[in-house]
Amino acid sequence: MPNRFRVRSLATLGIALLMWLPLASHANDAQTKMKYTLFCSGCHTADGRGSGDPRIPDMRNYVGYFAAVEGGREFLIQVPGVSTAPLKSKELAQIVNWMLRTFSADQLPDDFKPFDEQEVERLRQYVLRSELGDTRKALVTRIEEYKKNN
Amino acid sequence: MKWFDKFFENKTRNIARTSSRRSFLSNLGKAVVGVSVIPALPVAKAASGGAPAGAHYPGVSPQTSGSDGDPGDPTTCEYWRYCGIDGFLCSCCGGSQSACPPGTEMSPITWIGTCLNPADNKHYIISYNDCCGKAACGRCFCNRNEDDTPMYRAFSNNDTNWCVGASSETYVCSTAVILGTSIES
């Protein structure tokens, strides 16, 4: 019964894959955390609290709000520290998703969709420079309104 | 003076008899090249004391980490963790490779790189936190710059004064704190 054998072996393979998946994603998290440490934590510090300097604000229990307001998703990728980082878009997507989950999971909107490589690649083509401060100010105002309504 | 003339005539004739003009030229050539090459040999460099391995700053005694897994002397520039450092070594300034001297404040922001630990052949993530708030230490200057990037990539440039994040911007010395091991991708 070669057919039945094949079905069973496929099922076994599937179960094996399922068992392996959590392990694989855990290994990825360690990788992502390491890249955050190497490329971001020098200024943002290991726990995301920042330096106290207003140019490096505290991300804890806050950065997730950006994903909830209009224009915030773009901002998260177009801030110079993200868009100009010497990293591939796939790695950047993993790091930003990891930061949002780790530092500010409770502030993420319920329908939050993680960033993927294509979206990061598209968004990072534009880098916020001189308008960075004004863009952020406008978003913070939007976040304050969002907080009142949610 | 006849004996004087005789003496030099004999000597000259002796030299003329036993040597050729060509051998004189080849020996002279060897001497010229040899003298210029000897200082370039590594042995000569170590002997002359110009930035030799394990050199000590005057008045600073050797230190160890006390662990076989962390080899070398933290008061010398050759210590493995200093592969990307640029500044005075806190180990020579009353602190250590991972702690600031008393009375100074460790900058919360810093530049981060990786160094290869010769003990286990693994790359470690090193944070070069500056210590701030007193007069510059001035001892054990060390500038290795491995993996240093130009100023326009400020977050991995070691010429930045990272004391901008501390309450005093006066730079004292630099540490090399281990944050973890680097995982191969």
From TrEMBL, chain B:
Residues 72-180 form the Methylamine/Aralkylamine dehydrogenase light chain C-terminal domain. One of its GO terms (cellular component) is periplasmic space. The modification Tryptophylquinone is found at W111. Disulfide bonds join C77-C142, C83-C115, C90-C173, C92-C140, C93-C137, C100-C131, C132-C163. InterPro entries: Amine_DH_Ltc (IPR016008), MADH/AADH_L_sf (IPR036560), MADH/AADH_Ltc_C_dom (IPR013504), TAT_signal (IPR006311). There is a cross-link at W111-W162 (Tryptophan tryptophylquinone (Trp-Trp)). Keywords: Disulfide bond, Electron transport, Oxidoreductase, Periplasm, Signal, Transport, TTQ. Its EC number is 1.4.9.1. PROSITE patterns: TAT. This is Methylamine dehydrogenase light chain. Belongs to the aromatic amine dehydrogenase light chain family. The keyword Electron transport applies. It is an enzyme of class 1 (oxidoreductase).
